[in-house]
## 1
Amino acid sequence: MMWVLVRNLSSSIHPLEISFWGSVFGLMAFVPTVFKFGIKVFLTNRTGLHFIRAVFNGGALLTWFCALTLVPLADAAALNLIAPLLITIGAIFFFNERVGYRRWMALGFGGLGALIVLRPGYQAFDLGVILLLLTAVFSAIQRLISKSLAKTDNSTTSVIYLMLFMVPVTFIPSIFVWTQPTLSEFAILAFIGLLLSTAHYAWMLSLIHISEPTRPRLIS
């Protein structure tokens, strides 16, 4: 849903600016939680790692939103299958995870699909493809970092810090392409932000459920 909205909105607002407003509204979605629970939602000993994650995720968001305007959605979705492969390889090296042959087969088919889309030797590596590959790398790095954060911080804290730090990360490049959104465009941007924060919240929560099923889940 978010990809389609970004693709349509990019005709009037630059994707770099969409990334910024998505981060702003994604952060605003958690304002009620902050009012409800107060300062304890910010308690963490890993602020630096949260910032590093935000830098990589901000980079992924910027390159992904720009790529969506240059590459057909079907091709973008196919090339996005490279990210799980990179995440799996990273999990083996950094978390000593064991990966069974069934998962390797599934990831292999995903990587094969990406190669079919890329058609090495037949299709030039244009800007859209380069941005998609950068997105896959940045996304894999931030997800590996999120896996580490899930061991110590709850989902709410992780997403709040992610959105908080992504605001300045995405604001800087948006300055150079700034336009004033209309009220109807602000409504779409707010929905994009809600989808963005919800997706990250679900991702963090899934990591906690899968890795530590008996651990207290989150602040809700």
Note: The chain has a mean pLDDT of 85.
## 2
Amino acid sequence: MVGFEKRYHPDQFLMRDWIKSGRLGRVEAIHIQEMWDMHKTFTDLSPRRAEHLDRTGSLDCGIHSLDSIRYLTGGGDWCNVTARGRWFGEYERNQMPHISIMADLDNGILATLTESYAYCTNITQRTRCTTHTVVGTKGVVNWAWDGDDELELSLVTEDGVETFPYRHMGHNEAIELMATDFSRVLLGECEWPDTLATGRDGVIAQRIVDDALAQTHANTIPVKPTDECLGGE
């Protein structure tokens, strides 16, 4: 079992149910944007930030979103991966804090992911911007989160616009649900549920992360911006 606890969040259940039941028609594209400061560069938690950036950059969190795209649409393997990254001044780190990926799943779905740890990371003000959009031939789903606990999903179809409010689920709560399911499987109380990611799911996610990280280094000009580019002294 691989710890992709995001599969247990309420929004994932709703979106997957709508996709499987055909309410969106044929899903052609999924776009995810997740931007936050990853504890900032100057707080007591900044060493944790540095540790993440020295391993997999912003894709430490982004790997969960990449799995989520496959989970929502029934699986598939990644192909045609293109990735770019930016340093945002943190040149001493091994990986970039801001990475964008465009890729196809072999089931025909186009996916884009922008994962950023550079969002307001150098200022004290905190904000975040997370959006998920699922585009189908008969409808779309929109979801946005700015850090509040009260959320809603928007489903747009020929029948109109429906909104579904729900409470944000934290990582600990989702991990507890995941661990409970895994324990029940081990005890023989149930079959393996599709909410539990398998080793194969983990390998597929790791492969696209490795590919994307390699491309960010190969395709990013390793030159610090000039003062003119920065827009100031």
Note: DSSP finds six helices and eight strands in the chain.
